[in-house]
Amino acid sequence: MSSSETATTTTTTTSNKAPAAPEARAAEIVREYGPFDGVECVGGVTHDGQRVWAAGGARLFAFDPESGERTRTLDRAADAGTAFDGKHLYQIAEQRIDKIDPATGDVLRSIPAPGHGSDSGLTWAEGSLWVGQYRDRKIHQIDPETGAVVRTIESNRFVTGVTWVDGELWHGTWEGDESDIRRIDPASGAVLERLQMPQGAGVSGLEYDGAGLFYAGGGGSGKVRAVRRPRAGAPAA
After folding, report:
1. Partner of 201 for a Cys bridge, out of 25, 67, 197, 212, CB 3.0 to 4.6 A?
2. 216 within 8 A of 181, measured Cβ to Cβ
3. Cα angle at 79 between 125 and 7, to 5 degrees?
4. pLDDT per residue over 198-236, tens digit each?
């Protein structure tokens, strides 16, 4: 059921006045999945503890990260970020975010997306949804019940996927032919760490699996890539 009410927005904006980004290290891609039949573009990506879910435009689908085989397909609009809260999926579909029962595919609730169609990444953390705004170079923390914006963090690159890792905020970027996965200070927006993707390997969605890997949507390649999270304190290559 779609919400017909306009969410009340209370926004705290943190500007990025940080120094230049640190030197990037090469992203370690450990596996590629896809392209998948019938999927021309992969948007959002999430992980439910067992399966990887990916937004494939007209469908939301899941695959086994061990075998690479598709295990579920839900006929739900899925053109951007995807998230999992431990029980339900959340999916950006144009100007709304749908809360979906993964067992049945039923949409349980819809809330307005803060970018009104310009939203990109999506993740769940600390009882909130976090939404990337692509060309606005922002990440919004929003109330999952109303869509109200609670807080805004600014980046200095186009924001695609968003994920939290052990209290660290990471997001994907994609401008032109360059894409990276970066860790930023959630208070200031300062860039703390960067993983540079190979030329042509864009990041359209991002999620951490809790076991050492980021899963990154590959946009028009139709692929999902598993990228190793660097060990804390590991030097740049």
Report:
1. 197
2. yes
3. 55
4. 999 999 999 999 999 999 999 999 999 999 999 865 555
Rounded-to-5 percentages of helix, strand, coil across the chain = 0, 50, 50
Q: What are the tokens at 64? A: 């086994």
DSSP 8-state symbol, 25: E
- Domains of the chain are 13-228 (2.120.10.30)
Per residue in 33-45, pLDDT (tens digit) is 999 999 999 999 9
Rounded Cα distance between 28 and 86, Å, is 27
**Per-residue pLDDT tens digits for 174-192:** 998 899 999 999 988 999 9
Do the beta carbons of residue 53 and residue 84 sit within 8 Å?
A: yes
